[in-house]
Amino acid sequence: MPQPDLTLTPAGPALAPRYRERPTADRRSPHPRNPYLRLFTVPGTRAFTAGNLIARLPMGMFGVSAVIMIAGAYDSYALAGGVTATGMAAGALTAPWIARLVDRYGQARIAVPATAYAVLGHLVLVLCVHGRAPAWALFATTALTATAPNTGGMSRARWAHLLRGRPDALHTANAFEQATDELCFMLGPIVAAVLCSTVFPEAGTLAGATLFLTGVLIFAAQRSTEPPVAPRTAAGSPLRLPGMAPLLAVFLATGAVFGSMEVVTLAYVDGPVAGPVLALQAAGSCAAGLLYGHAHRTASLRTCLAAMALLMTLPLLAASTGPLPALAAGLLMAGMATAPTLVTGMGLVQRLTPPSQLNEGMTLAVTALLGGIAAGSATGGWAADHAPFAAFGFLIPAGAAALAFALCAATGVGRTGASRTWGRGPLTDGGGHEAGSHLRA
Fold first, then answer.
1. Which of 150, 378, 368, 84 is nearest to 259 (CA)?
2. Are 5 and 15 in contact (CB under 8 A)?
3. How far apart are CA 208 and CA 82, in angstroms?
4. Count of H helices and E strands in the chain?
5. Which of 169, 369, 384, 355 is nearest to 259 (CA)?
6. Alpha-carbon distance 62 to 60, whole Å?
7. Of these four, 80, 105, 157, 236, which has the most CB atoms within 10 Å of its CB?
8. What are residue 434's DSSP bridge partners?
9. What's the mean pLDDT in 308-312?
10. Which parts of the sequence are annotated with region: Disordered (predicted)?
11. What mean pLDDT is predicted for residues 260-273?
12. Residue 8 phi/psi, 5° resolution?
């Protein structure tokens, strides 16, 4: 007769269970293994991300729409370029002030009226162009659009608030945001060009204004994920924070890479395929950004900039020696270093800036990028007009990338301010090394 199985318990011997539960293969973890899917298990993140995506797509539409609309009405690309440049310059001046108000009074309270005012400016511009108003009216009107809030910065601020103390998850969120930027600036010009050419010239601006206001309203309505307004302090501008000024100088040089590459590529290709060829750089950056977000360990900003400086020589070599497909491949490869560089740089801005000034800090970084883009566009345009050989213009983005790396190496960006953690984990240089560690060596 078989003896029953006994097991020892605190109360003495007892019958062991006849059947033991075994783990089954189909039992699933409550959290997805994909880091991007894990981001959206946080309550409220899907709703604010959807609204922000709608609001950010027009950022890639307004410039192209304005150029097509103004050039078609006034038969002057010079006027169209001057008006759009004026709008960009005005936005660069006002963006930090709008971001400071967002930090002080909250995203919903400031972003909605600021967006409504900017949309009104776009609508007035449409009316001026449609009525063939004098050129000075176009310049004055486009300045009204400068109140547009930095929607990407507000979204990153929400992630930083929700993922405080989880640096790996925040790194993935920053990579997702950068990939979203690349996607919007890749799709936005295409949507704008199609609307302006197939519907009517003003359709791109009108559609962009509608999407912008709708997206911001949806985004602002998600109050559960909005960062709380920090108590007002006597803290000065984030520009005074240790390490911020040299980091912004790096962003300025990095922006010159993007601005010059766009102009010299359009001038070099000079045809209907110029847009798709240029979009390959954004496609490479988007793909690299998503892959970078999967990484458990990030690279340092210096390493990212070194890779960008190296890869930016590929379009130059392709344009000097190869056919158009070679240039397309070179742009695709060159783009693969830009998203990791910006993700790492934005991560450093988040760590250097206190929560009460986070929107302002990230907007300063975006403003530096826009300033670099404007300078790079002007320099690239000059190089395209005065090029001693066809590929000469591609020296500009390659040189700007090398300058960004040199500034990072010379100033030690990302290796200062070790004491400023602001509750988001130890401040690192982006490569997992504690910032300021070189000071102890």
1. 378
2. yes
3. 20
4. 17, 2
5. 369
6. 6
7. 157
8. 428
9. 94
10. 1-34, 416-441
11. 77
12. -90, 125
Say how far apart CA 39 and CA 180 lie, in whole Å.
14
Contact 363, 237 (CB under 8 A): no
Residue bearing tokens 């566009």: 377
Residue 428 has φ and ψ, to the nearest 5°, of -120, 170
- In the 8-state DSSP scheme, what is residue 226? S
The pLDDT of residue 376 is above 50: yes
By CB atoms closer than 10 A (0-12, 13-18, 19+), residue 238 is buried
- The C-alpha atoms of residue 347 and residue 304 are separated, in whole angstroms, by 13
Between CA 397 and CA 258 the distance in angstroms is 7
pLDDT (mean) for 186-191: 79
Specify the pTM. 0.70
CB 338 within 8 A of CB 308: yes
Paired tokens of 303 = 């390493």
Q: Which option is the CATH number for 44-230: 3.90.550.10, 2.40.50.100, 1.20.1250.20, 2.40.30.170?
A: 1.20.1250.20
User: Cα-atom radius of gyration of the chain, to the nearest Å?
Assistant: 25
Report d(CA 427, CA 416) in Å as an integer. Answer: 9
Q: Which residues contact 383 (CB under 8 A, 6 or more apart)?
A: 260, 264, 392, 393, 395, 396
**Which residues on adjacent β-strands are paired with residue 14?**
7
**How far apart are alpha carbons 95 and 229 in whole angstroms?**
19
Would you say domain 238-433 falls under CATH 1.20.1250.20? yes
Residue with token string 């010009």: 189
Q: Is the C-alpha dihedral spanning 334, 335, 338, 343 positive or negative?
A: negative
Q: How big, in percent rounded to 5, are the helix, strand and coil portions of the chain?
A: 75, 0, 25
Q: At what angle do helices 107-130 and 151-162 cross, to 10 degrees?
A: 160
> What's the rounded Cα separation, in Å, for the pair 401 and 306?
8
How far apart CA 129 and CA 162 sit, in angstroms, is: 44
> Can you give the length of the chain in residues?
441
The secondary structure of 352-412 as a DSSP string is HS-GGGHHHHHHHHHHHHHHHHHHHHHHHHHHHHS-SSGGGGGHHHHHHHHHHHHHHHHHT
12: left (phi over 0), alpha (psi -120 to 50) or beta: left
- Highest mean predicted confidence (pLDDT) among 16-25, 71-80, 431-440: 71-80
Q: Which residues of the chain does CATH 1.20.1250.20 include?
A: 44-230, 238-433
Three-state SS for 7?
Answer: strand
3-state secondary structure of 236: coil
